[in-house]
């Protein structure tokens, strides 16, 4: 499928290196940096192998892992190669994720010179005890400095990541994180609930009882605190975990153009180990192993591990899950045009039950989760699918 002007594609590059693996993280990364040069050669070859994609891109997102462990020169080579092989718009949103413990003002200045116009900073917390619990390598002071340096380097689009739901975290502690983040005036804030992913050190600590998980009621309180505080501080809540600043020199809220692609069925290409791609109706992903990725590319083969062609039913299910993640919800007219299903009729029974529970609303031709419903999206989507598509 060729990207249309109203739905340009996104390009994602996964950098699989970290100085230290965080105890909660399930994203693919390794702490052995000895293969960085070899990886960069392979990555450029993978870009060349994908150069004939008939897509127009308006975002480039460099994530990980920790992209900022690479030398700025390597990041510059990555961007230059992407421009060479892909049709990237001159005004594209180009984002790099950074860890406050791996970046300097000089690095940020170099990023800005090479065309990066958005930084996403993995702050997670402004409380040093919380950072130690999460096994982050930076301090709260490092986090504040990284934002200051980003501004001095010329960035006017800065995003911060925060995590809530830590054991023993209360509203006062979380509100302090939100206040400190707000005082730095970022254009974007992501507030992620701490999750216990299988196979992580955190999951082992929970399983053995060394850590007691936060109560559901407390997590709900923290989630509501974030929404109340940020909406009162001129942020638009546009997706479960994401908030964009309203106002300033830009008329539109500073949403993440790249992340929006994942929730709106826009096409995207992922490069690097474990990276996913989607060009409707196909989804495919690379090997989740740097060693296998390198071997495949160096042998002149694709790094793809698996590919699936989504059926109409699978695409319908994804449209429900992804649509409910956003605060504008599922557009019922678009849903019917796309899948030939009258949403109101097909899902009448579960929708009525969820409306009575205060979980969902039908307004202005959209099916939208309430604030209460947002925290239970998985079970709500499953209920809709089981009762409406069976």
Feature tags:
TIM Barrel, Arc Repressor Mutant, subunit A, 2 domains, nine-stranded mixed β-sheet, three-stranded antiparallel β-sheet, 16 helices, 22% strand
Task: Describe the protein.
The protein is built from 16 helices and 15 strands. By secondary structure, the protein is an alpha/beta fold. It has two domains: 9-262, TIM Barrel (Alpha-Beta Barrel); 312-388, Arc Repressor Mutant, subunit A. The strands form three sheets. A nine-stranded mixed β-sheet has the order 7-8-6-5-4-3-2-1-9, with helices on both faces. Helix 1 crosses helix 10 (290-298). It is globular.
Summarize the structure.
The chain has 390 residues and is α/β, with parallel strands linked by helices.
Task: Give the SSE layout.
Layout: E1 9-15, H1 36-49, E2 56-64, H2 72-85, E3 87-98, H3 105-113, E4 118-124, H4 128-133, H5 140-152, E5 158-164, H6 171-183, E6 188-193, H7 201-207, H8 216-232, E7 235-239, E8 242-245, H9 257-263, E9 268-271, E10 276-279, E11 282-286, H10 290-298, E12 304-309, H11 312-325, E13 330-331, H12 332-339, H13 343-346, H14 348-356, E14 360-363, E15 366-369, H15 371-374, H16 377-388
Parallel strand pairs: 1-2, 1-9, 2-3, 3-4, 4-5, 5-6
Antiparallel strand pairs: 6-8, 7-8, 10-11, 11-12, 13-15, 14-15
Helix pairs in contact: 1-2, 1-10, 6-8, 11-16, 14-16
């Amino acid at each position: 499928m060729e990207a249309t002007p109203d739905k340009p594609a996104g390009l994602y590059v996964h950098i699989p290196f970290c100085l230290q693996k965080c105890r909660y993280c399930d994203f693919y990364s390794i702490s052995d940096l000895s293969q960085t040069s070899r990886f960069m050669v392979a990555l450029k070859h993978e870009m060349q192998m994908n150069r004939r994609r008939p897509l127009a891109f308006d975002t480039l997102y460099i994530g990980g892992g920790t992209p900022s462990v690479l030398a700025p020169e390597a990041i510059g080579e990555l961007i230059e190669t992407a421009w060479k092989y892909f049709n990237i718009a001159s005004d594209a949103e180009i984002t790099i994720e950074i860890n406050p413990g791996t970046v300097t003002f000089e690095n940020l200045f170099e990023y800005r010179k090479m065309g990066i116009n958005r930084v996403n900073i993995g702050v997670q917390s402004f409380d040093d005890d919380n950072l130690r619990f999460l096994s982050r390598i930076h301090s709260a002071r490092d986090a504040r400095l990284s934002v200051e340096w980003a501004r001095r380097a010329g960035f006017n689009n800065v995003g911060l990541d925060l995590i809530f739901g830590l054991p023993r975290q209360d509203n006062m502690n979380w509100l302090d994180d939100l206040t400190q983040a707000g005082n730095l005036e970022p254009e974007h804030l992501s507030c992620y609930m701490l999750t216990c992913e299988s196979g992580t050190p955190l999951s082992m600590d929970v399983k053995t009882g060394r850590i007691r998980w936060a109560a559901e009621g407390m997590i709900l309180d923290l989630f509501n605190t974030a929404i109340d505080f940020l909406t009162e501080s001129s942020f638009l809540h546009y997706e479960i975990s994401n908030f964009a600043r309203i106002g300033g020199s830009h008329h539109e809220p500073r949403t993440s153009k790249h992340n929006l692609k994942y929730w709106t069925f826009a096409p995207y290409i992922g490069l690097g180990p474990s990276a996913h791609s989607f060009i409707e109706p196909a989804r495919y992903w690379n090997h989740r192993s740097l060693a296998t990725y390198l071997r495949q590319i160096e042998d002149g083969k694709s790094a793809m591990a698996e590919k699936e062609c989504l059926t109409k039913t699978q695409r319908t299910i994804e449209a429900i899950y992804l649509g409910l993640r956003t605060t504008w919800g599922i557009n019922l007219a678009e849903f019917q045009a796309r899948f030939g299903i009258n949403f109101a009729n097909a899902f009448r029974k579960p929708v009525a039950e969820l409306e009575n529970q205060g979980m969902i609303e039908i307004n202005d031709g959209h099916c939208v989760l309430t604030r209460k419903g947002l925290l239970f999206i998985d079970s709500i989507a499953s209920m809709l699918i089981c009762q409406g598509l069976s």
